[in-house]
Amino acid sequence: AASPRVLSGIQPTADSFHLGNYLGALRQWVALQDTHEAFYCVVDLHAITVDYEPAVLRRRCKVAAAQLLAMGVDPDRSTLFVQSQVPEHAELAWVLGSITGFGEAGRMTQFKDKSAKQGASAASVGLFTYPILQAADILLYTPEPGEGERDFQVPVGEDQRQHLELTRTLAQRFNHRFGTTFVVPEAYIPQGAAKIADLQEPLSKMSKSSSSPQGILDVLEESGPLRKKIMRSVTDTGTEVRYDPEEKPGVTNLLRIYSALAQTPVTDLEQRYAGSGYGQFKKDLAALVIDTFTPIRERTEKLLADERDLDRILARGAARAGEVARGTMDVVRDRVGF
Ligand code: ADP
Ligand code: NA
């Protein structure tokens, strides 16, 4: 059977990806290329649903794509592209929006969370319909239904489960109403994905929207600041390097990071640092983070130094994605009566 197809997207909403993005998602993007036919998308249409600056957005798309390549996304094996370069995303979103109930869309908890921050009536309609665009992002890359029952997977963290559920509902509803068109995508729980907390507030997740600069480790950050932040990260009273999410959330978060980066079980780390206190542990962790990020930063800088190559890679990705997307839309347009 053909290898399963996988689709994932990431927003270009920061100047750098952070350690949470890397360990929670992007490292798995790289690994999945060995087993899946991957479509990876920098989702700039999603990024304009909140306040933004056009020039900053354009720059961040490039920097995001460069980082993905630097991390190991291989444009010869995977299709890497920028969402706005494939207009079918917006077109399919309109069609899917027309089979989505207003109340159904209103139950999306991420919209409630995000809009609560700015006052619900100040939020854009685009932010409200965001999960429908996400459904389109996914369903455009459906394998042909019946094509050897090829698997279709979407890696999802907890926060995206509800959106994938909506995507599945819309795929089934469309198939039922207009004839089988989409393979219903499955949630894929990536191996080794870790949830990373803020270094200063270990009960909250590391996040570009809520972490202070001291709590977040950026992939493109220099070694000095990275080391400083790790050495100053919040630990707990006591000195024991022990995994204990209740009593020791700070140390537990650092252990998770160490374990994920070194691919070493937490219990081995607890043994290795038994009796040595937090200092040596943090020092070694800093070295590990720096060894991971430095080559990614250097490759990113190189890719951004001459953007022609980068632009060519993205144009090639958009052409390949567009081919698949147009194939899907040809069927959709016919089915819905256009
Ligand atoms: P942020 O929370 O910084 O805004 P996004 O929501 O854009 O990041 O998330 C992009 C991807 O990175 C998603 O797949 C998300 O699950 C993952 N991710 C974000 N923050 C973390 C984290 N702290 N730990 C693990 N994964 C994370
Ligand atoms: Na977020």
From TrEMBL:
GO cellular component assignments: cytosol
CDD domains assigned: TrpRS_core
Superkingdom as given in the UniProt entry: Bacteria
EC number: 6.1.1.2
Record keywords: Aminoacyl-tRNA synthetase, ATP-binding, Cytoplasm, Ligase, Nucleotide-binding, Protein biosynthesis
PROSITE patterns: AA_TRNA_LIGASE_I (PS00178)
Classification via NCBIfam families: trpS
Binding site residues for L-tryptophan: 137
Renumbered ranges of motif 'KMSKS' region: 205-209
MF terms (GO), sorted A to Z: ATP binding; tryptophan-tRNA ligase activity
Subunit organization: Homodimer.
Protein family per UniProt: Belongs to the class-I aminoacyl-tRNA synthetase family.
Keyword hit for Aminoacyl-tRNA synthetase: yes
Locations listed in the record: Cytoplasm
Catalyzed reactions per annotation: tRNA(Trp) + L-tryptophan + ATP = L-tryptophyl-tRNA(Trp) + AMP + diphosphate + H(+)
Name this protein carries in UniProt: Tryptophan--tRNA ligase
Taxonomic lineage: Bacteria, Bacillati, Actinomycetota, Actinomycetes, Streptosporangiales
PANTHER family: TRYPTOPHAN--TRNA LIGASE, MITOCHONDRIAL
Keyword Cytoplasm belongs to the record: yes
Species in which this protein is naturally found: Actinomadura craniellae
InterPro entries, alphabetized: aa-tRNA-synth_I_CS (IPR001412), aa-tRNA-synth_Ic (IPR002305), Rossmann-like_a/b/a_fold (IPR014729), Trp-tRNA-ligase (IPR002306), Trp-tRNA-ligase_bac-type (IPR024109), Trp-tRNA_synthetase (IPR050203)
Binding, ATP: 11-13, 20-21, 157-159, 196, 205-209
Top-level class of the enzyme under EC nomenclature: ligase
